Sequence to fold (519 residues):
Amino acid sequence: MANKVSNHLHQLIHSLTGTEKRYFKKFAVRHSAKDKTAYLQLFEAIEKQSVYDEEKILEKLFKSSSKSAFSLSKNRLYHQMLKSLDAFHSESSVDSELNYYLHYAEILFDKALYDQCRRILSSAEKIADKNEKWIALLQIIKHQKRLAELNNYESAEENTIEKLANRELKILKILDAEAGLWHRKSMVFAKLFKQGQVRKPNDVNLLRTQIEEIKEFSDSHPISFEADYLSLHTQSAFYFSTGDYINCHKILKRNIELMESRLELVKGDPSIYISAITNIIYISAKLNLFSDVDTYLQKSRNMPVKLRSKITADLQLRIFTNTYSLELAICALSGNVERGIAAVKEVEKGLAKWDTQLSDVRKAGFYHTISTIYILANDFKKALSWNNKLLNTIPIEKSEDQYCFGKIMHILIQYELGNYDAIPHSLKSLKRQLKLRKRKHDFENEFIELMSYVSKADNDQSHNSIFQDFANKMEALETDPQNKIAFEYFDFKSWADAKILGKPLAQLVRERAPEKDVL
Fold:
């Protein structure tokens, strides 16, 4: 089995585009005259392996060498590749450009070419200012302070010293504000990602207090794009987690408007724009604002052109996870089974391609929605297969919400398959998890009561009666703040109605949607 370091080299080589590979081979010839043949042989041998096999590489290229010599060669190749990528992408980002300017300034200063150093720093300062690169600005100020100190401050006016000092303090305050907001944002998100959507009144109140602190903090500190973005981003997550979709939509819209007003800053990290667009499409669908769905879907498709961004591997991954998770979710919301099944086929390819880069939580989200699509399609064996993947992939500690609702859906699918003997054991396991996690709300109680009854009842008439009672209760719980979050995972009301009326579930989901064929 490959060790971690060996696998890193294999992963790096296989992450290269065709253009990057060609550039590296030329780079190796230019910069590794002595070892270029060995570098290229090792590179090409690893490139040919779809699965890394270190023993074969050793046998082929390092038969007469020690293992330490092989490790040294791998390490040198790895760093040579990073140098090649650095050179290849040297003009692809503002950060790279600023790093070069700062290095030029250092060289010119060391050569006592002080006026030239000042001009380079002035150019760098304009770029850093425009793009809110605060760390780079602090480095620029550091060089400017060295210039001010020349010959015992001979050429430095008091006004210049004051400007430099005030500028540095202002930037430090901005960085302090951004760090404070990031800390507060991360505390909120860590809780949300672990526990899922908030249902307990005490948890809602605690999060609301944290959100108010964030608003107050951002209002009382120097404002930057990053600070404004972090504040709005966290507020929208809070409103989503508590089921307040109207305010969530308002805040997401404000954040998108903020980003579109500063596209030059978003270009450096387009993932934040992709995420905001994805979120507002989903929330718009939940609010039945389908004209907004169309508007923001178009923005999503035009994103690379709008931002003039290179489609990097990271961007490809984010576009895959966000757009397909969104498409599947809207298909499930609208009962668009045909479109959903077609999307599942593409998602399966993406899951295979990005397997090692996707988090367990993200995978579990895909598994749940795919399982839901197959429930709508009445293909319960496939629904169970994807549900089992969810339960076997994600530990409950990673995402309580997804895991607990995964267990609920597991029981529902077992019922649909007629596996009544398996239901009592599954119910026992579910009740134990809900008790441990203190997550037993009205919805869970009603679902457990329903399944306990119908898995034992013999006649359809008694089933109809209990499902009618369940459907009535679901109608009330759909709008209850502590319980409506359950309906984010599945349309339990339509499912109960399908049992009562003998109609296909997908048909009833479509009928409940204000517009058929949302996508």
